[in-house]
Model the fold of this input.
Amino acid sequence: MTTVTESARRGAATATADARRRAGRRRRIIAVAFVLPALLLLGALVVYPVLFSVGRSMFDASGTRFVGADNYVGMFRDPATLKAIRNSTIWVVVAPTLLTGLGLVLAVLVEKIRWAAAFKLLLFLPMAVSFLAAGIIFRLAYEEDPDKGVLNAAVVGVHDMVADGSAYPGARAREDGTARQTASGGYETDATVSPGDAPVALGLVGVKPQDVPARARPATEAAAAAAGPGELRGVVFLDFTPGGGGRPGEVDTAEKGLPGVAVEAVRDGKAVASATTGPDGAFRFSGLDASAPYALRLPAANFAEPYTGVSWLGPALVTPAIIGAYLWIWTGFAMVLIGAGLSALPRDALEAARMDGANEWQVFRRITVPLLAPVLTVVFVTLVINVMKVFDLIYIIAPGPVQEDATVLATQMWLVSFGGGNDQGLGSALGVLLLLLVIPAMVFNVRRFRRSQS
Done:
């Protein structure tokens, strides 16, 4: 009887174990069935392209000849690639640091204003704009022509408020031997004059009649005025008669003087006196040495082209300008993430510090920032990964002539492979390099995420 009971128990235990194994097998099959489409998609879109790129990077441009590591060696000998690595380094160091700092400052300040939600919405709105649209917006904003580019319009407006422009930009003296152009861009008379001589007529052309100031008066009287003892007189006039018929180099009845022109009396190559023309274009020097001859000079400042602003998209500023556009897009992202971490801070620690006499700066530096360190690290590393892949803004904002000055690894990879280089072996090597640079940051982010979940 005991033997039958033990056999029944063992049979029941075996049946239960078999049932459990079958149930576990079914669960695994169901799990694999659910995960399999994702694994297939991951393999097709991630694993296969990575393996293919690694393999393709070891062949030449045509893809028929195996070259081993030659593409990787040549990559670091190419000046354009080295410039792309340098620019990528600038992006990685500057952009995430500025964004994390701006996001932290704005997140702290937003907590102290009444309309915090509206302010966050305004700062986060650029995230809804595609990089293509943002690139077009900033390409227009950075236009060098102040009539088109809003930034240069503001710069020129401020400049013109604090500095006077030239009197007659683009004007020039007639090429009749009266005056020659100096190395600095001004004009100086070939012949010398002495105090008491007849007035000197300095005719200019290249000024549109409608650009002559309204206060300008006919220059005939100034040209005929006699110089007093020790005086040196002259007139600067527009050597152009509306409708034609005037005499070049001479002041005609219908020709007007040019007011506001700076004139210098020059002796031995140095300016010894200066004057400014009046409404009729007349100028006068007094107190000069009557025994010495003088040349007359019209400084280049009279003819300088108007200030047109900053060349934002020139070789020197194109990378900082594009980083500025990137900051506009991503500042809201950093602020919202850091703001979420800030809202989770223990308020009792902040209040205790204030009660102990700490001011707001001390609370921010000694309490807020250390407690937010994990969030700040996640934001910073996420932005590092993002800037390593930046492509759209650089390709759209940087004009063609300075594209190489703004290039980063992502754009260089595209240019080498498809943008005219047609060397997909070298392009694949650049892609592998970019992957190797991004992987450490991704691993760091994943590990920190796992630690935060445990």
